[in-house]
Amino acid sequence: MCTSIVEIIGADGMAKRGDEWFALTHAVVAYDHARHAPHADVMTLDFINTGLEPGARAGIELTLESAKQLLAALDRAITAAEFEEREVRSKGAEPALVQAV
């Protein structure tokens, strides 16, 4: 039985399929039957561009536990990035990976 748990948001970024990168328009988060992973139900993340052919998609299937760990890791990274933006760059510091010209 399908769960009908689906969230769709707009997404601004890039995704890669094979050797090609494409711009994103949406991200889809769902909990449903696995299509490829050897599990019954999984969290599915699909990053898509609705203006391109159906293959313009980067898909991921994660167990619920792995999805929770990913969520926690994203939360930690977002908190650190917000600190970086607020406390470091707002004071005129250059980003660590970008060299000043």
Structure description:
The protein has one helix at residues 64-88; strands spanning 5-10, 14-17, 20-23, 26-33, 41-48, 57-62. With 101 residues, it is an alpha+beta fold. The chain is built from one helix and six strands, in the order ββββββα. Strands 1-4-5-6 form a four-stranded antiparallel β-sheet. The chain has a two-stranded antiparallel ribbon with strand order 2-3. It starts with a strand and ends in a 13-residue tail after the last helix. Strand 5 (41-48) and strand 6 (57-62) form a beta hairpin. The chain is globular.
Set out the fold topology:
Layout: E1 5-10, E2 14-17, E3 20-23, E4 26-33, E5 41-48, E6 57-62, H1 64-88
Antiparallel strand pairs: 1-4, 2-3, 4-5, 5-6
Strand content: 35-45%
The whole-angstrom Rg is 17 Å
Shape: globular
Helix percentage range? 10-25%
Biggest sheet strand order reads: 1-4-5-6
Mean pLDDT: 87
User: Which residues sit in consecutive blocks of at least 5 with pLDDT less than 50?
Assistant: none
